[in-house]
Amino acid sequence: MFSWLYGLTGTRSIFEEPVKPYLYRATYNRSINHLNSVLVQRRVDHTDNLDELIDYEILSYNQHDNLLLKEIEEEISSFVKTLPEQRKKVFLLSREENMKNKEIAFLLNISEKTVEKHITKALSDIRTHLTQTGLMSGLIYFLLNQN
């Protein structure tokens, strides 16, 4: 992995942020890609029915997407628990209870602008956390591959 990364840039200091989460995710993804290519070749060699192979591949990619989405959802849920109490309340009321900003403001006795700021800050914190853990690229991949 390091030689591959070094070969891309010709230098060792290409990141402004910590490299460990990126390397972990990149290694994980390259390993999965390698295993998938080996497994696909074996299935092609041993499958007489092309429709059967296509159906199997679609199912396996859907399972991979579901696992990736579940991992991202669990990470977000875990991270939301670490948010400051008021920000967490506002975010959960907005996203899980589907309440409007006006309703949240009335319920918590705060201004709508404060509700907007809490939601904006929570989403920003989540994006930053997902980027640091290497899951943001997985989320983008998942969203781009949706039909």
Task: Kindly summarize this structure in a few lines.
This protein is mainly α and 147 residues long.
Descriptive account of the structure:
The chain is an all-alpha fold. Helices cover 79% and strands 0% of the residues. It is built from 7 helices and no strands. Helix 3 packs across helix 6, helix 4 crosses helix 6 and helix 5 packs across helix 6. The protein starts with a helix and ends with a helix. The relative contact order is 0.10. The mean pLDDT is 76.
Query: Helix fraction?
Result: over 70%
Shape: elongated
Number of helices: 7
- The averaged pLDDT comes out at 76
Task: Write down how many β-strands occur, each being a DSSP E stretch of 2 or more residues.
Answer: 0
Could you tell me the radius of gyration in angstroms? 21 Å
Largest sheet: none
Order of helices and strands: HHHHHHH
pLDDT < 50 runs, ≥5 residues:
none
The first-to-last residue Cα distance is: 32 Å
Quickly give the structural class: mainly alpha
Q: Give the amount of beta strand, in percent.
A: under 5%
SSE diagram, text form:
Layout: H1 2-9, H2 20-46, H3 50-80, H4 85-95, H5 101-108, H6 112-133, H7 136-144
Key phrases:
elongated, 147 residues, 0% strand, 7 helices, mainly alpha
